[in-house]
Amino acid sequence: MKPFQSAINISLILLGPLLAVATYLFLGPFNVAGQSAWLRFFLLLDLVYVLLIVGIVLVRILYVLSQRRSRLAGSKLHFRLAGVFTTMSLLPTITVAVFATISINLGLEAWFSDRVQSVVGTSLSAARSYADEQQAALIDDIRSVAEHLQNFKKNKALTED
């Protein structure tokens, strides 16, 4: 049973990055609207992969706990080592998550600061003024063209009589 478990473990280790790359490719640079079925497929595969990994970890945790309860030799040491390695693996993850949250929060605060809002408000008022000026110029041009057409119509009517 051990060689079979090793083969499964190695295949799961290799499958994770492959699924991550495939999902990235369908989410990122090749974002084509017709590929939404493929994207759903890869997201479903990612979900199944994560659930499978969680299941394997839970089975192993329950196995270690059952060994500890039955007071087998080395089970206490095994449990402590598993706890230490779990803590060692979670600390960088938690640290990265905290720093990412803080940096995103600070970045969003910078985007929505009073200075940025005043610049956006000023540019909006400038854009509205420009649009109003262009609209007034177009209305003047339309009136001028209409006046020329009226004059042309009158002159043509006078020359035809």
Note down, in words, how this protein is organized.
- With about 160 residues, the protein is mainly alpha-helical.
- The protein folds into two domains: about 1-70; about 115-160.
- It has helices at about 1-25, 35-70, 75-110, 115-160.
- α1 packs antiparallel against α2 (about 35-70).
Kindly summarize this structure in a few lines.
This protein has 161 residues and is mostly helical.
Give the key terms.
single chain, 161 residues, mainly alpha, elongated
Secondary-structure element series: HHHH
Q: Give me the number of helical elements.
A: 4
Ends distance: 111 Å
Question: Residue-averaged pLDDT, rounded?
Answer: 83
Share of residues in helices: over 70%
* Rg (C-alpha, Å): 35 Å
By DSSP, the count of extended strands is 0
Helix-strand category: mainly alpha
Overall geometry comes to elongated
- Counting structural domains, the number is 2
Strand residue percentage: under 5%
Largest sheet: none
Classify the oligomer: single chain
Low-pLDDT residue intervals, each spanning 5 or more residues: none
Question: How are the secondary structure elements laid out?
Answer:
Elements lengths: L1 H26 L8 H34 L5 H37 L2 H47 L1
